[in-house]
């Protein structure tokens, strides 16, 4: 899945000359948390709602009005902005968010802001990739970390005439093993689970091999 599929294309950008007061009102009225700062069509910084609250006086009293209107975004914005391209993969975008501990990634194409990707967007992508919104049953299996094991599992499912909704692998609970999480389009996986066990693989979930599902 690519960034362009899930990014928000309706990006609200601001000028570095915008005041703190204006920016606070903007994020509140738009219901957004991040403002890319653009100057002459070029991304020069970014501010979050947390940055705005941190820079605001403790109380909005009359004597603090000059601070609210006199503080400009160029004084508080983050200038070293981590960005992503619309054709970048979601997993790479997720890695950037995680490693840099940031809440969003402006999406740039030929130097122009064409979208914004947030942590919520990544969560939505994960839900889609795992197929949890589709009816079916999830099976978790432990397999040796060697070529051909995944094909064995999918061949069993294919032989039963059942579609695979989603499939992902994870580090195993034991060294030299991988975890396989498969979502299949059936509410009764008992026959498939038994065949997987007969083939020599350990089924972690459902624990009893029953028809536990989440339609």
CA-to-CA gap between the ends?
A: 25 Å
Share in β-strands = 25-35%
The counted number of beta strands is 8
Output the CATH homologous superfamily of the largest domain: CBS-domain
Main sheet properties? 4 strands, antiparallel
Fill in the CATH topology of the largest domain.
CBS-domain
**Rg, alpha carbons:** 24 Å
Report helical residue fraction.
25-40%
Report the top-level CATH class of the largest domain: Alpha Beta
Q: Which CATH architecture of the largest domain would you pick?
A: Roll
Kindly report the average pLDDT value: 91
Give start-end ranges of low-pLDDT stretches.
211-215
**Total domain count:** 2
Based on helices, strands and strand pairing, what is the structural class? alpha+beta
Order of helices and strands: HHEEHHHHEEHEHEEHE
The dominant shape is elongated
Query: What's the quaternary structure here?
Result: single chain
Strands in their spatial order, largest beta sheet: 6-7-5-8
Helices, by number, come to 9
